[in-house]
Amino acid sequence: MTHFFSIITVCKDNLAGLKETSENLQAQTNKNWEWIVVDGASTDGTVEWLTSRSFERMNWVSEPDRGIYDAMNKGSDQASGEYLIYMNSGDCFYGKDRLQLVADAIIEGGYPDLIYGGSMNHMEHFSFYKKPRAFRDIWLSGLTMHQAMAFKRRSLGSERYDERFPICADYALLCRLSKREAFRAITLDAPICLFQLGGYHEQHLLKRLKEDWQIQRDILEVKWPYRLFVYLTRLGSQLIRKVNTHIHNGWMNYFKPGVGNERSSQGKGEVV
Asked: In sequence order, which residues have a C-beta less than 8 Å from that of residue 144 and are 6 or more positions away?
């Protein structure tokens, strides 16, 4: 049986996150999906849990890999659904109706090569909705979080994530696809996934910007003045956001109930 969606989840020693993704996926109102789990030889009980939870629409493998994109490629090779969505361990859809929302948009949109929506981004004390970027603006940076994208499997073909870009292989894949003359993508202005900010990508900002520079130069052939503009703009916006986040968290912690008393006690202890 061919399912409408193949949900591909990669994990490595993150059983708690995998369980969260599993619960979120099985709560979806749309049940026309298969779940493919690619585990990187975890030792935290993941294999035992997968063995106990195996069901008809679930396929999984546990073996060493070269990293997250190698694992995602393995999942792509196993997929049989019409559309592929990459939801890694700990990733979740924004609400129980998101898969159905995407399915309806795909049908109404005439089965595009790619459909993507926005994300609800979460920080320590607040969340905000990030709209998807227009496909024509892909030269600026990624369109959205990869968890908010659904690739038509037949259109993806043999294209896979390029492991030469350990941080931005998802962006490189999108850029290669955008070079196809007949490639058609549609946007869905709605939050598809929940995304926790502050992860690996943001912790390695300069490496990410360097890879983006290479992708924009080699794949999109963006001229260097535009690449420099993008580089400086994104660097500045990231730094500003980090400063704002630090200030916001500082105020939230300051006004947290009981914090004032704790600080007073600590201060007295230091004096003594």
From this structure: 116, 117, 118, 119, 130, 132, 133
* Residue type for position 263: R
Mean of pLDDT values over 132-137: 95
Helix (H) or strand (E) holding 10: strand 5-11
In the chain, where the domains are located: 1-90, 94-262
pLDDT tens for residues 63-75? Answer: 999 999 999 999 9
φ/ψ region of 81 (left if φ > 0, alpha if ψ in -120 to 50, else beta) reads: beta
Q: Provide CB contacts within 8 A for 147, sequence distance 6+.
A: 85, 86, 87, 88, 91, 119, 192, 193, 195
Residue pair 99/29 in contact (Cβ under 8 Å)? The answer is: yes
C-alpha to C-alpha distance for 117 and 101, rounded to whole angstroms: 10
- Domain 1-90 -> CATH class: alpha beta
CATH class of 94-262: alpha beta
Q: For 245-269, write each residue's pLDDT tens digit.
A: 666 556 556 555 554 444 333 333 3
- Fold match between domain 1-90 and domain 94-262: yes
Q: What is the pLDDT of residue 270?
A: 32
Please name the residue that has the structure tokens 């490496």.
207
